[in-house]
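lol ok so funny story. i was supposed to be doing the assay writeup but got distracted and ended up predicting the structure for this chain instead. priorities right. anyway since i did it might as well share w the group, maybe its usefull for someone
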Amino acid sequence: MFERIADLAIRRSRLVLVVAAVAVALMGVAGAGAFGKLLGGGYDDPASQSTRAAEVIEEKFGGETNLVLLVSAAEGRIDAPAAERSGRKLVAGLKKERHLENVVGYWDTNSPSLRSKDGREAMVLVHVQGKDVERDENAKEIIDGYTGSYEGDLTVKAGGGAAVTSEMGKQSEADLVLAEAIAVPLTLLLLLVVFGSLVAALLPLAIGFIAILGTFAELYVLGSVTDVSIFAINLTTALGLGLGIDYALLMVSRFREQLAAGASVDDAVRRTVHTAGRTIAFSAATVAAALAALLVFPQYFLRSFGYAGVGVVAIAAISTLFVMPALLAVLGPRVNSGRMPWAKPGRAANRAPLWGRLARTVMRRPALTALPVLAVLLAAASPLLGITFGTPDERVLPEGAESRQVAAALRENFTGSDDAAVHVVIDGPVAKARLGSYATALSELDGVVRVEASTGTYADGRSAAGEGAGAAGGAAQTALGRPDAQRLNVVSTLPPKSEEAQSLVKEIRALDPPPGSHPQVGGVDAVLVDSKDSIGSRLPLAVALVALTTFLLLFLFTGSVVQPLRALALNLISLGATLGVMTWIFQDGHLSGLLGFTAQPMEVSMTVLMFCIAFGLSMDYEVFVTSRIKELHDAGADNETAVTDGLGHTGRIVSAAACLLAVSFFAFGTAQLSFMQLFGLGSGLAILIDAVAVRGVLVPAAMRVLGRGAWYAPAFLRSFHSRYGLSEAAPTPPTAAPGPAVAHEGPPRTFRRTGVDEAPDVVESPQ
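and the output, tada:
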């Protein structure tokens, strides 16, 4: 396969580039429409009880409240004549909006629950109609039209789920622009440092650009037929830029080495495709396999990252395998044009003696060098013992965000927020007496302020109709009951999404319902409970798929059953350390002042996403390093020499690639959305931990401990690998003119041709 790719690049290089240019133009046209197809939200399970409850409320009761307008009097109390007059006009105007239903204002009901404790503020509860993009557009229209100063007597602010989603979408776009404004210049600067040549530095950026545009086009197509989250764009840009650079970096470095070794341009392209191309193909397969595990989850927020991740990996790999060789064939020695002043002519592009010396030290003293590193990583993972999980709410926004200010005011100034109520829906007829008994039992649960039903309002185990009927009181109360369905609002003083609020949901679900009925429990706290249960139930399957596919791919790559197990064990250690540090920061609140976020439970979907991304990228570098070690091992080098020289050859590539990829993710540390900060900082940290601590220390130590057993496989699997293993012999390297002797450390060495490497490898002489 790689021979045919190389021949295509050499013989039809200009045709390949023309086809690629046309494809990029088409992808750009399609990708430009991606933003209009993508959605906010997507954190709930479509098959969950809370989702079914929301569907029944939408169908039979006009929908749940998803927009809350907080109305403040410009002067005095909200009941003052001028404020009341403007308030009634505001509610009347909202009721005329064709996209709104269930508009309930304080001035309609005089409900104490809709007026603040100090009497200066009031709520208007609204349901915005529409699905996904349509609902978001309708909410934006209402927010833009009604917020701010109203009639000179009132100030209106927007909160609730629709407002939070709208602000998160806007903030995500702003965060993306800022992150890319930071990442792209820094990446170009680092590429110039690594390559020392302007032309060589621009080639990886070109691959990253193609990967991003191609994935935007993919998201446009998918967004036209299914739900896709807007946050998939963030992963696309970070991963597309990073992986495109990773793969192109490896290929350009190999090509420049070939030229430096005296190979012709055609031979350099052919051998680069055979060596670096095979590594890239395996690397892309492992990363894609890890990200594909996200597709097992029902939440489209997570599935969207699977769509984007698999797409961006595949496009980055394909463009590197086909477009990059054609570019190199056309450029030839001009790949070194635009040499930087600090670049040293003739310097090997990826030989790093420091990494070789580090590997040699670790191999000779594995316990002394590896145990301290292992202890630090395990200590970093220790905060995982106290990890808790949540879903995104207004607290992920900056403190100055309007919807967050509204949420804070509702918690502090109102007695129980109807916006955060638990909704109980019975899809069928219920006798009034039995419904009243059920509502009475609900009102006796700990933390419940009142229960609103079509039969009245209940508090502390008794009817409270005469003491204020809540938001659903009066005429609005009749909207809670239909001949074929009943709805109850359970309002509590418990902080939304707290452990106590989640426990209340479980208690409500455990309560005996009216005979013959099957209540569905929904609301924000129920969504969180269902999301955690849904993700938790599918997480073992996702982890098993990642582990199994990784094991199979690494076995096909190495022919060993021990190497995949070693890789999986070390990756889990580095991932545990990363997640532990992120828990220490984002859940426990350390560095919150510096980073400007509010500490809260770890976002469950983002934690799963970070696990899959970090695992996939760690396998990326696993393949980079193992490929060279295996080449030396297959050529007859002993274990220590294979590891030492393998890391010597790949160390600079891995460290440079890790720094470049980490920059793409760390740029999201500047985001104003806290879960995007978590995503960016966590992924970047995982990359650096893996590249330095794992590849530099733990891999050599493990290889030293395992010895020859590192390459073990049962006889039947060795036979299977020899027949079906994905390997391909490279063409015989050209004979290069002898160069000057190179001094090196250690005992005398001899040169042995590997048959696949681009330059003679140095191996230890027999002692």
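Residues 466-478, 732-767 have pLDDT under 50 and may be disordered. The longest strand covers residues 121-128.
back to the writeup now i swear
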